[in-house]
């Protein structure tokens, strides 16, 4: 005979909405403590939860919360993420400006993009709502949602911060990196330029996801020229400002820095999240892969900022990242026209996943 808990799981598919509401509400804690009960009958309970994301908002809220918890399991993750029809429903609900559970939908999508097969979202299309004024390409819709939805300005129920994690996971794929660095036909904007402005946002989630996305895209070495070009992405100010505090530099050092980093206010603080600081420093290290990148960083006095970050951030990961970057910035370059050392040349063109 089924246990009381197994019977309760069966009630999430009950025709009576009051029973469904009571069942889903009481099952939420068990989606963390006993996820195995949702794997019965070849994941039938998970199938029912997928149907419920379009149910009454309160029922949908509980269903989404459970799906977020349950997709920590790799088998359930693939079962949900590989359901093309379900992904279409999720994305359609996400861009609805009146959707009350939009943030939970964004959180679930952030989980689903950890599945390798979700990179196919790059080619996915859907008609955007008139209120979004976006492209048919889903990735462009998500980017515009992330920007326009900031602080509840698109949907009063949501801030869409968790889309930053969606971008971070998707940008691990080479073809998605290409998307982020190429201007889109419908608005002429490079996608990376839409998200770089959030590196100093108040939301830890936004800052962390955006920092990781920038770093992942920086693994594309041919894109470094665009990264550093003031007329294209001009990424350096958006990476350096979050890792800069209110330190005082001598006049020569300060005047050699980028204009955005000169004469900062006395209350300027570097990012309090050490993992974000480390990510930005690692991105700078990736951008030293080319000689042009190294020389630009030397010319705009990146070293003093890294020196102060190393001194003032009490975190081993940050310090090690700073030390790696300093080793590259302080080493001598071969004279122009000189025969390059084979080992050094090989090192220049090698990127190692951090």
Tally of separate helices? 21
Quote the beta fraction: under 5%
Kindly state the number of beta strands: 0
Range of helix content: 40-55%
Distance between the termini: 51 Å
What characterizes the major β-sheet? none
Q: Globular, elongated, flat, extended or rod-shaped: what is the shape?
A: elongated
Radius of gyration, in angstroms, nearest whole number: 24 Å
Mean model confidence by pLDDT: 93
Q: What class would the helix/strand composition place it in?
A: mainly alpha
Encode the helix/strand succession as letters. HHHHHHHHHHHHHHHHHHHHH
Low-confidence stretches: 338-354
Describe this structure in words.
The chain is mostly helical and 354 residues long. It has a domain at 222-332 and 341-354. It is built from 21 helices and no strands. It holds the Pfam family DUF384. Residues 283-336 form the Protein HGH1 C-terminal domain.
Concise account of the structure shown:
The protein contains 21 helices and no strands.
Topology diagram in text:
Layout lengths: L3 H7 L6 H11 L2 H4 L6 H12 L5 H14 L3 H8 L2 H11 L7 H11 L25 H11 L14 H8 L3 H8 L9 H5 L8 H14 L6 H5 L7 H5 L10 H5 L18 H13 L4 H9 L2 H11 L3 H15 L11 H7 L6
What descriptive keywords fit this protein?
single chain, mainly alpha, 21 helices, elongated, disordered C terminus, Protein HGH1 homolog, Protein_HGH1_C, Protein_HGH1_N, Hgh1
């Amino acid at each position: 005979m089924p246990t009381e808990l197994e019977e309760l799981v069966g009630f999430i598919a009950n025709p009576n909405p009051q029973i469904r509401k009571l069942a889903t509400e009481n099952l939420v804690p068990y989606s963390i403590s006993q996820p195995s009960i949702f794997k019965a009958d070849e994941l039938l309970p998970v199938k029912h939860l997928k149907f419920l994301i379009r149910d009454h908002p309160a029922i949908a809220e509980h269903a989404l919360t459970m799906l977020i918890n349950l997709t920590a399991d790799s088998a359930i993750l693939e079962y949900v993420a590989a359901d093309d029809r379900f992904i279409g429903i999720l994305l359609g609900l996400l861009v609805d400006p009146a959707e009350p559970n939009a943030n939970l939908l964004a959180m679930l999508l952030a989980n689903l993009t950890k599945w390798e097969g979700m990179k196919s979202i790059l080619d996915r299309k859907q008609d955007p709502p008139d209120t979004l004024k976006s492209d048919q390409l889903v990735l462009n819709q998500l980017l515009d949602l992330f920007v326009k939805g900031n602080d509840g300005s698109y949907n009063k129920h949501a801030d869409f911060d968790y889309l930053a994690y969606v971008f971070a996971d998707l940008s691990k794929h080479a073809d998605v990196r290409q998307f982020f660095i190429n201007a889109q036909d419908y608005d002429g904007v490079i996608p990376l330029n839409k998200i770089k402005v959030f590196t100093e946002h108040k939301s830890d989630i936004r800052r962390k996801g955006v920092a990781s996305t920038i770093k992942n895209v920086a693994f594309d070495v041919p894109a470094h020229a665009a990264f550093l070009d003031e007329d294209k992405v001009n990424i350096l100010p958006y990476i350096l400002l979050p890792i800069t505090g209110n330190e005082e530099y001598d006049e020569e050092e300060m005047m050699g820095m980028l204009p955005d980093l000169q004469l900062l206010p006395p209350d300027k603080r570097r990012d309090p999240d050490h993992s974000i600081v480390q990510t930005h420093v690692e991105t700078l290290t990736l951008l030293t892969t080319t000689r042009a990148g190294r020389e630009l960083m030397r010319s705009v006095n990146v070293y003093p900022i890294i020196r102060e970050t190393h001194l003032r951030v009490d975190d081993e990961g940050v310090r090690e990242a700073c030390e790696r970057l300093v080793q590259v910035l302080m080493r001598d370059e071969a004279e122009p026209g000189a025969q390059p050392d084979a080992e050094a040349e090989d090192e220049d063109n090698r990127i190692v996943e951090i």
